[in-house]
Design a protein that fits this description.
With about 210 residues, the protein is α/β, with parallel strands linked by helices. Helices cover about 45% and strands about 15% of the residues.
């Protein structure tokens, strides 16, 4: 593409879409070799339709004196900053083919999804977290494994958004990308992008 053509196209696409196009190029560059005709024929016959999986921690929440993930913590809402972040997330993903959205039983995850569900008319589905996963890594791993089986097994073709927590999103990434370096989350507004079935680290952007 010529520089003039790229500039014309850049003036039409929004900044969120341009970032995702750049990230998609990075992810594709991680593939070790181009697919042969035989590879494509085998994939078409035997493999599910590839999907991109977006993962994020819920947006910024109101300060709370309740213990994290306790019964009292379930209804903690997003802050004004968090509601703005949720709208930014919807701006980025609104035209990226999200066909399924998954949250937890915590209100802040549902509120993070709401601007996008209004755009895409996709109802967010809750995957409730069991008690005790904070102190039990084994229970946390099992919860994520079962959740991924549900997500990948029932979602329609297209892209998926998972809205979780600082404890669950790293475990999702670990299981989706075995062997990749661990990811830790300490703040809000990180969006991770995984090409399901492709190797390498997840791409990420801030929103």
């Amino acid at each position: 593409m010529s520089e003039r053509s790229f500039r014309r196209r850049s003036s039409v696409l929004g900044p969120g879409m341009l970032m995702l196009i750049a990230l998609a190029s990075t992810l594709l560059a991680q593939v070790q070799r181009p697919a042969t005709l035989a590879d494509r024929q085998t994939s078409a016959a035997a493999a599910p339709i590839p999907r991109r999986i977006f993962l994020t921690r819920h947006a910024h929440r109101e300060p709370s004196s309740f213990a994290a993930f306790s019964d009292q913590d379930v209804n903690q809402s997003l802050s004004l900053q968090g509601k703005t972040q949720a709208r930014h997330l919807a701006d980025i993903l609104g035209t990226n083919g999200i066909s399924a959205i998954y949250v937890t039983q915590f209100v802040r995850t549902l509120q993070t999804s709401e601007p996008l569900t209004e755009i895409n008319h996709v109802t967010a589905k809750a995957l409730p977290m069991p008690k005790g996963i904070i102190s039990d890594p084994g229970a946390r791993s099992t919860y994520i494994k079962d959740s991924l089986a549900t997500i990948l097994g029932e979602s329609p073709p297209g892209n998926v958004l998972i809205i979780g927590h600082d404890l669950t999103i790293p475990e999702y990434l670990k299981q989706l990308l075995p062997g990749s370096s661990p990811v830790s989350i300490s703040g809000f507004g990180d969006l991770f992008i995984v090409e399901h079935g492709s190797p390498g680290r997840p791409a990420s952007i801030k929103y």
